Each structure stands twice: as structure tokens, then as C-alpha cells.
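Hi there, hope your week has been kind to you so far. For a while now I've been wondering how a particular protein folds. I'm sending you its amino acid sequence along with the C-alpha cells. Could you read through the record and tell me how the C-alpha cells relate to the sequence? Take your time with it, there's no hurry, and the full record follows here.
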Amino acid sequence: MTSQVKALLIDLSGTIHIDSKVIPGAIEAIQTLRAKNIPFRFATNTTKVSSKKLVDKLNGLGFQVNDKEVFTSLSACRDLIKDRQFRPLLFMEKEALEEFDGIDQHDPNAVVIGLAPSEFHYSKMNDAFRLMIDNKDTPLIAVHKARYFADKDEKLSLGPGGFVTALEYATGSSAITVGKPTRSFFELALKQIGFQDSPEKVAIIGDDVNSDLGDGAEELGLHRFLVRTGKYRQGDETKLHGDNTRVFDSVADAIHAVVASYP
């Protein structure tokens, strides 16, 4: 099956690193992709830091990444806000705010939620609730709706999905989700590597069977490779169905399998 894979989309947090810990063999595996000229993009829902800071972090970990190799839900969210001329009430950590430099945030007409632990408190959530309940046309935009993430202690921590759902429940609204696993996110990532017309030749590698490998990835017919690191918990593989799915111990094993069958 890996012989059909000609390009890769690779998750970041939990897949190639967990906070400041690199997954063993990940750096060497990425270097092999470059040496073999196999097209790839890092496709991530990471929202706690800006795209620039994320690239800097990856380089600090030893990955030698350039800006064009990283496609984030945060940058996709920024583009959506600019295109629709929203003035967002942002739930973002300080390290992520530079992504929205130059965007008017006065007199908000939209609520935008990323992974922002320091912002998820009653007062700020209530500000968002009041903005939405007073004007039913106020959109709720979720950078992503992950239920949890692998924290720096390698245990699971609560993701933004529950906070998005709380506002959906309280206001009767439905969020616009920008990041994985939406089909639109994967389509944009595929376009960047030139495989928008042949998604069946691309594999997504990730540790989250729902956020990385669900919905849009399945609809597009991507190969879906689950790795047993990060968010992975025993039994997740039972949620993965289809002939184009596989489970690997790590991203290094998944990449090596693709490289071994690459022409």
C-alpha cells in the first residue's frame, strides 16, 4: 500500500515532537524525505504559537524547517478572517497573536477560538457569549475542535473543542471549523504540494485518529497512517477503517515504509 504514496502530510505535535522532546528518529526521517525529493508538508493544528514562532521552535529542535514547509490552521484562520473582513474577539495565547498583526480587532464582530488555556475563564467566555447572543449573525470560528492534546508532561490535556462546544450550546450557534480534519484544510495543504487532483497518492501521518485522520482526510481518500505516540491511546486503531489505513509505532517507521517503496 505504501507504494501508492507519492507525497506526505505530517502532523507536528505528538507526531514528530511533544513540546521540546523530539520523537526518536523523526529528524533523520525528515532528512530522508528531502534527500529522496519526496514532497511533504507539515500540516498542523498547533495554535498556541504563531507560524513564525512554530518554525523557530522546530529549527531549535533540529528539524531545519523553512516557512513554506509548514501549513497551519492558524494561518488558514488568519486568511479566512482577512477575506471576510472580520474583527475578531480572539482566544489566543500571547505567543500566537503576531499571526493576526494588522487585523482590526476593535468592536469585534466575530469570535475566534484557538488553544488558549490562559484565556479560557468565565469572564472572557461570557464576553464571547454576550457578543454572540446580542447579534445572531456573529460567527463562531474554531481554529480546530480537538478534544485534547499531548502536553509537555506527555499526559493528555483539555483541548479547545470543549470550549467551542460550550459556546455552541449556550448560543445555539454552530462553529465554522478551519483546521484539521476539515476537507477544506486538507485541500489547501494538497494544493501546496501539487496533489490537489490526486489526493489518493498522499498520506497523512498523525497521532490523533479523529483530528488528524478523520472526516476530510477520509472523504478525500488520503492514506491515513496512525502513529503510536503523542495523543495515541490503546484501542485508537479500532476507530480507523478502510483499506488505505495503517498503524505504525512512530513517524520514523511510517516515513521509512514510504521511502522503501518509493521509486
About this structure: The two ends are 13 Å apart (CA to CA). Residues 49 and 96 are 4 Å apart (CA to CA). Residues 83-177 form a domain with the Rossmann fold fold (CATH 3.40.50.1000). The helical segments are 26-35, 51-61, 73-84, 122-134, 161-171, 183-193, 215-220, 251-260.
